[in-house]
UniProtKB/TrEMBL annotation:
Protein name per Swiss-Prot or TrEMBL: glucan endo-1,3-beta-D-glucosidase
Family: Belongs to the glycosyl hydrolase 17 family.
Short name of any one Pfam family annotated for the protein: Glyco_hydro_17
Any GO MF annotation of the entry: glucan endo-1,3-beta-D-glucosidase activity
Membrane topology reported for the UniProt record: Lipid-anchor; GPI-anchor
Domain of life the protein comes from: Eukaryota
Organism placement in taxonomy: Eukaryota, Viridiplantae, Streptophyta, Embryophyta, Tracheophyta
Enzyme type, top EC level: hydrolase
Localisation: Cell membrane
Length: 470
């Protein structure tokens, strides 16, 4: 945390003055078979003083349970519906009528996320994003809801070409003309905001040798000066967000606001997932809540009070991928807290963040090179296929990596050096890693819709050697 905030926080009057400075919500994911009913979940959310919830679909049971709760809701039109919403305005109108009009305003839907991290979706849905957003908005216009409900789409930080220093933040050039400029024009014209998913954990986990854990967890640290503009950063979250603000500014969209639709820290992980622990998750989320609710924007945008959605409400036991994916929850399915942090200004008054973990990570703060993750100076990382993802998801992701993704898939062709073993997992791992390395090992570059994850030990498939850089 910026030490300048500390005296202000300790003064009760100062905390009260900043009570409306920022807003904290929560993501309510449901990829699990043991969660409480939607009615119980809404009661839990209200009991914690949370005023905003983001969901990943428009499940009737959830939207009905939220009716009359006073909780502001962001719903999602899933990636698999982007094609229909883009190609058929009637589909978009029908979707809005069935999933929005039927519940609003009793259920206080305030925004629609059209897709989620579409640029890393292996099903090549990027080209449908802007038409889908426009058709959904036009449907809201038809029902006179366009003033009260905003339309946007969450992006991963892998959409950035550069994020260090923050002042040099820029979007990936191949996305600027076909996607970002028309999307930002749309957001500006409709008074909406850019939705961003930001995970300092990914940057730290992949580069713990060069990124200070204190810097990642908002704890006291010397800070790092942005060589581009001289601003000093005391946490990685602010640095990542300002990289997006800088990318917006570079395209002359300084006036477009931002909402952080996902951020969080896992309480448990695999052996190679450095930093995943209850203590670190409590420190990150607790300090983040304090950071948001006690006011002040970022070093680059000091007046930009942020709305931030924590990921996630529950541990979700049916999620694919490494152990961390199933352990981002603030609560267990039995509604007990995984760790105790406040979500309101009132709760902050008596809150003390967890003490420092014995493992402090690297002592220097290093720069994320692309998408929030830097190349480690002392260790390497690789991207491999998740064997539990299923054949269909792996094949779709492999097709994307070797096609639009631009991975070097020549070594896995018949009679080539990495063709053997001729298995989907082995071939996908090679292709995913090629894509990951070519993209600079950026955050989100090893995702493929949950079909891949990062490892710190070199993969072994026969005699095939996996590259670590291009």
């Amino acid at each position: 945390m910026d030490p300048n905030f500390l005296p202000c926080f300790l003064l009760l009057l100062c905390v009260v003055a900043f009570a409306d400075a920022g807003s904290v919500g929560v993501n309510y994911g449901r990829i699990a078979n043991n969660l409480p009913s939607a009615v119980k979940v809404v009661n839990l959310v209200k009991s914690q003083g949370l005023e905003r919830v983001k969901v990943y679909d428009t499940d009737p049971a959830v939207l009905k349970a939220l009716s009359g709760s006073g909780i502001k809701v962001t719903v999602d039109l899933p990636n698999q519906l982007l094609y229909s919403a883009a190609k058929y305005p009637n589909f978009a109108r029908s979707w809005v009528q069935k999933n929005i009009v039927a519940y609003h305003p009793s259920t206080q839907i305030e925004s629609i996320a059209v897709g989620n991290e579409v640029f890393v979706d292996p099903h090549n849905t990027t080209k449908f994003l802007i038409p889908a957003m426009k058709n959904i908005h036009q449907a809201l216009v038809k029902f006179n809801l366009h003033s009260s409900i905003k339309v946007s789409s969450p992006i991963a930080l892998s959409a950035l070409q550069s994020s260090y220093p923050s002042s040099a933040g820029s979007f990936r050039p191949e996305l600027i003309e076909p996607v970002f400029k028309p999307m930002l024009d749309f957001l500006r014209q409709t008074g909406s905001y850019l939705m961003v998913n930001a995970y300092p954990f990914f940057a730290y986990e992949s580069n713990s040798d060069v990124i200070s854990l204190d810097y990642a967890l908002f704890r006291e640290n010397p800070g790092v000066v942005d060589s581009g503009n001289g601003l000093k950063y005391f946490n990685l979250f602010d640095a990542q967000i300002d990289a997006v603000f800088a990318a917006l500014s570079a395209l002359k969209y300084d006036d477009v606001k931002m909402v952080v639709t996902e951020t969080g820290w896992p309480s448990k992980g695999d052996e190679n997932e450095v930093g995943a622990s209850v203590e670190n998750a409590a420190a990150y989320n607790g300090n983040l809540v304090r950071r948001i609710l006690t006011g002040g924007g970022t070093p680059l945008k000091p007046q930009a009070d942020l709305t931030v959605y924590l990921f996630a409400l529950f541990n979700e036991n049916e999620k694919d991928g490494p152990t961390s994916e199933r352990n981002y929850g603030l609560f267990y399915p039995d509604q007990q807290k995984v760790y105790d942090i406040p979500f309101t200004v009132e709760g902050l008054k008596n809150y003390k963040a967890p003490s420092r973990s014995p493992v402090s990570g690297g002592q220097q703060v290093s720069a994320p090179v692309r998408g929030g993750v830097s190349k480690s100076t002392t260790g390497n990382t690789w991207c491999v296929a998740n064997p539990d993802a299923g054949k269909e998801k792996l094949q779709a992701a492999l097709d994307f990596a070797c096609g639009e993704g631009g991975a070097d898939c020549r070594p896995i062709q018949p009679d080539a050096t990495c063709y053997s073993p001729n298995t989907l997992v082995a071939h996908s791992s090679f292709a995913f890693n090629s894509y990951y390395q070519k993209k600079g090992r950026g955050m989100g570059d090893c995702y493929f819709g949950g079909a891949a994850f990062v490892v710190t030990q070199e993969p072994k498939f026969g005699v095939c050697e996996f590259p670590t850089g291009y």
